[in-house]
Amino acid sequence: MVARARLRTNLYTVTLERMQGDRTRPTICKRMARHLVVIVSTASWAGACEPASCRDEPVSQPRLSSLHSGFVPPNPGERQIGLGTTHGLSDVLTRSFAVSDSFRPMPTPAPGEWLAEFRETGQSFNQFVEARPNRASPHRRTIYILPIDPEQDGGRWLRESPERPDSRPFDRVSTAVLAEYAGLFYDLPVRVLPRITAVEVGARGRINRFSKQRQLLSTDILAYLEKKLPHDARALIGLTTIDLYPEPAWNFVFGQASLSKRVGVYSLARYHHPAFYGESSAAAQEVDALVLRRSLKVLVHELGHMFGVEHCIYYLCVMNGSNHLRETDAQPLHLCPIDLRKLHHSIGFEPLARYRNLGSFYREHGLDEEARWIERRMAEIAGIGAE
């Protein structure tokens, strides 16, 4: 989701990055084109470089002009084409997918932002349907979350419930809260599997030469998850506080997922950088809100990819690509009308009930900005026409 360099093959995306000291530059590695989506992050983003071969030495100088996308934000007519015709839909669905002031059209990107650096053509609703994405079925509806703990200190680095205290800020995320949110967002049942340790996964690892932190090879974790995929799973996501990397030539990734095999893994390790690097941090309440927002965004973003939804270029949306954490933090937690319609096509849900449940979650967890957005959106739907 963050700091991506993309290699597309039909429905698949590869996004990778490498870093030299505190200068992080994305690049593409063809050997990684194995039907994977990779999410990555930067500790300090300093620009993009031309695609380069898979070697450990970083490219010496960034050359932004070679990657400048020339992106022009879609106009209202193009956004309408992206949504497609709503003829034949119920009044409630028509109003739910209608454009309103709650959805901000994609602006012209600033230098260094995702759409300024990487070419995106977008995915309309009709293109999404034509791609025949995997859809939830009566026999394959459950999202599974598998916590993967470090073996040190007896594991338990991820909380099982919101009440359980933890010693480090970026370990404050509760698997129960993540599961609750995924269930409300996708209107599907979610189960948290019994936690396992990294030793049980058997993934290869290393000590990162920049951060000096332990890392696990994410592709090894994916191979393990493929063997553990429950028969009724719509998706299986591994969740860990251990840092990840996709192959030895690369610095790190936030996570990695297979669109075709319904498995993925992502790490919370870098969601609060001061704690990751052993530095002092802000007040605990502020840290909790920051880490929770980032965790929820990446969780639903990657699950969205596993439902066949590509990056959004039409509106500010949780499915936007992002080139750095500041850009990620500025993006909303909600889906735009186009991606909301895609999700409805794949799953089917009652939009107002979904919004109502999400609003209750946001209020309970102190996400006031998101709760106010839900209230405005529901008022707009209720106030547009008659049922």
Structure description:
The chain has a single domain, classed as Collagenase (Catalytic Domain) (3-Layer(aba) Sandwich), CATH 3.40.390.10. A hairpin with a 6-residue loop joins strand 9 (205-207) and strand 10 (214-217). Strands 5, 6, 7, 8, 11, 13 and 14 form a seven-stranded mixed beta sheet that branches. A three-stranded mixed beta sheet has the order 9-10-12. Strands 1-2 form a two-stranded antiparallel sheet. The two termini are 38 Å apart. The protein has 387 residues and is an alpha/beta fold. The protein is 33% helix and 16% strand. The longest helix has 23 residues, at 284-306. Helix 13 (351-364) packs antiparallel against helix 14 (368-383). It has helices at 64-67, 76-83, 91-96, 114-117, 125-130, 175-186, 198-201, 218-227, 273-276, 284-306, 325-330, 337-347, 351-364, 368-383; strands at residues 6-9, 12-15, 17-20, 23-26, 36-39, 142-149, 190-192, 196-197, 205-207, 214-217, 233-240, 243-245, 255-258, 263-267. The chain has 14 helices and 14 strands.
Continuous helix count: 14
**CATH superfamily, called what?**
Collagenase (Catalytic Domain)
Largest sheet: 7 strands, mixed
**SS class:** alpha/beta
CATH top level label: Alpha Beta
CATH topology value:
Collagenase (Catalytic Domain)
Report the strand count. Answer: 14
Portion in beta strands:
15-25%
Percent helix among the residues? 25-40%
**What's the shape?**
globular
What CATH architecture would you give?
Answer: 3-Layer(aba) Sandwich
Tally of separate domains:
1
Distance between the termini: 38 Å
- Uncertain regions: pLDDT < 50 for 5+ in a row? 1-67, 153-157, 161-170
Our Rg estimate from Cα atoms comes to 20 Å
Average predicted confidence as pLDDT: 77
- What is the chain-wise order of helices and strands? EEEEEHHHHHEHEEHEEHEEEEHHHHHH
